[in-house]
Amino acid sequence: MLTRLIEKVNQTSKMSFWHMSRMMDRMMDEYMKELAKNGRGGIAPYWRDADHSILQVANEAHKLVNDDKKFAVSIDVSQFKPEELKVNLDGRLLTVEGKQEHKDDHSFMARSFVRSWTLPEDADPDALHSELNDKGQLTIEAPKVGSSSRSKKNIPIRPAERD
Fold it and tell me: Where in this protein does the record put region Disordered (predicted)?
């Protein structure tokens, strides 16, 4: 497209400025029409043709349980050693991090991840615990509090006092 534009400008270099201006307007209109074919204002977003299957793999890499008895997360961290993992709780924000680096004379490789979840209000952050099994599954669990003490209660509706 740009080479065609340059060729037309070279061909018309002997024309008057007005003619060249009109030609540039037409070429720009053609260019914008071509861009518009790609959709949304003329420029196709860079992610349009991206392979989103990796996102699905990331979503399947963990299992989440949030029922009446517990909040639990299970993550496959089999590519990481225990010393390369961190589990932190900041308020109600649970964060799992993994970071590893391998260096030798000819190469350097780094791999990392961060996953975060907000603990539900009825999860007990003080009873939060984690386990790493020999297959590389990290499980973090917090029991729910007060679920058994909460019972259904009828709230009577009283008439408002009259003035």
Answer: 124-163
**pLDDT recorded at residue 116:** 92
Tell me the three state secondary structure of residue 114.
Answer: strand
How distant, in Å, are the alpha carbons of 7, 12, 24, 129, 153 from that of 2?
Answer: 9, 15, 12, 62, 74
Q: In this structure, are residues 141 and 72 in contact, taking their beta carbons and an 8 Å threshold?
A: yes
For the whole model, what pTM was predicted? 0.54
CA distances from 7 to 2, 34, 44, 105, 128 (A): 9, 19, 26, 52, 70
Q: Is 51 helix (H, G, I), strand (E, B) or coil?
A: coil
Angle in degrees, 0-180, between the axes of helices 2-11 and 17-36, rounded to the nearest 10:
160
pLDDT for residue 122:
93
Provide CB contacts within 8 A for 127, sequence distance 6+: 142, 143
CATH number assigned to the domain covering 56-143: 2.60.40.790
The number of beta carbons lying within 10 Å of the beta carbon of residue 73 is 21
